[in-house]
Amino acid sequence: MLQGRTTISKFLIEQLRGADDQADLAALLVDVTAAVKAIASMTAKGALGGYLGSLGTENVQGETQKKLDVLSNNAVIQACEWGGLVAGMASEEMEEPYVLPRQFERGAFLLVFDPLDGSSNIDVNVSVGTIFSVLRHSKIGDPSVTDYLRPGIEQVAAGYAIYGPSTMMVITVGKGTHGFTLDREIGNFILTHPDLKIPEDTTEFAINASNERFWEPPVQRYVAECKAGKTGDRGCDFNTRWIASMVADVHRILMRGGIFMYPKDAKDPGKPWRLRLMYEANPIALIVEQAGGAASTGRARILEVTPAALHQRVPVMLGSKNEIERLDRYHREYDNGDDKPFASPLFKDRSLYGGENRA
Ligand code: F6P
């Protein structure tokens, strides 16, 4: 029964009615939902589909490719290459941008995506997701790599799908952030979470705590204060969550607030950041900002970082606004040397920044 319910296509057509190529953008997003449905069906079959396990190959990041990484990548390409809506596509799973076969008309958009984020969780049946970002391509001819290197503020749409107990899509076209749930009986996404809002304050944070000794001091300070709870400077207890699947952690934050951090760390000096700017940080940052949250590297707004490479990585801190602003302040204080290196119990100064910690 569709009566009284808003399907994702109806919603997008209404949101994008009018100007120029907006109908094309709506059509492209509907194509993305077709890929998402195919991926949802594969992930839901689990071991019965024969899709689990690794391929024995590595992607451009040097990460082991799962069968489902590659199948999901193909699903997005096949759903979006034919319609004359994109000029090209780039993905986590492909070193170079995908050049459309000759027979397909070129469109006005670039689609950048991570087909199966958190795929290391697939074999343990934990939620994974697809993340995507849409940029405009105004030039004639196939795009070069540099055509993709646009800051996140230029995204015309962004979103993710989460394959969990239910499959959901969360989308923004710059007019708020909206969530849709897949009704498997009718095969359509239905608007279930209009105008999502992330509370400005929170007492919940997500970070891979095993990296604690490798973080920069401002992040160590933030987490130490949260962990000190009621007895510390923050004066209240905090809760932690870490699913190790960005879409699942971000989805929780959209539903009830919180922050997510994957900061710089010194564990592997050749790889100080984990998450990719163009198809992880940027689309999620737009979703979060459109829901009233904030997204920062600790030193800059994520959406204002101009990418230098397709697969560039960045530090990521996002979610409830007031906590992200606090993290930005801690980074500023540290960089300016304003943070006190000396602890005085009398004045409640922190002892965290011993001289030896300062970079
Ligand atoms: O590729 C990124 C990712 O899988 C994210 O989805 C997730 O947040 C993170 O890596 C998990 O990292 P870790 O393995 O350090 O917990």
Please explain how this structure is put together.
The protein has 359 residues and is α+β, with helices and mostly antiparallel strands. It is built from eight helices and 16 strands. The chain folds into two domains: 186 residues, 2-Layer Sandwich (Fructose-1,6-Bisphosphatase, Chain A, domain 1), CATH 3.30.540; 154 residues, D-Maltodextrin-Binding Protein, domain 2 (3-Layer(aba) Sandwich). 29% of the residues lie in helices and 21% in strands. Strands 3-4-5-6-7-8-9 form a seven-stranded mixed β-sheet, sandwiched between helices. A five-stranded mixed β-sheet has the order 11-10-12-16-14, sandwiched between helices. Bound molecules: 6-O-phosphono-beta-D-fructofuranose. 6-O-phosphono-beta-D-fructofuranose (F6P) binds next to loops.
Structural class of the secondary structure composition?
Answer: alpha+beta
**Largest beta-sheet characterization:** 7 strands, mixed
The CATH architecture term of the largest domain is: 2-Layer Sandwich
**Helix/strand order, N-terminal first:** HHEEHEEEHEEEEEHEHEEHEEEH
Q: Indicate the overall shape.
A: globular
**Unreliable stretches, pLDDT < 50, 5 or more residues?**
341-349, 353-359
Head-to-tail CA distance between termini: 61 Å
CATH topology of the largest domain: Fructose-1,6-Bisphosphatase, Chain A, domain 1
Question: Quick one: how many beta strands?
Answer: 16
By CATH's scheme, which homologous superfamily of the largest domain applies?
Fructose-1,6-Bisphosphatase, subunit A, domain 1
Helix content: 25-40%
At the first level of CATH, the class of the largest domain is Alpha Beta
Tell me the domain tally: 2
Small molecules bound: 6-O-phosphono-beta-D-fructofuranose
**Oligomeric composition of the shown chains:** single chain
What Rg do the Cα atoms give?
Answer: 21 Å
Query: Whole-number average pLDDT?
Result: 92
Approximately how much beta-strand content do the residues carry?
15-25%
- Spatial order of the strands in the main sheet? 3-4-5-6-7-8-9
Number of helices: 8
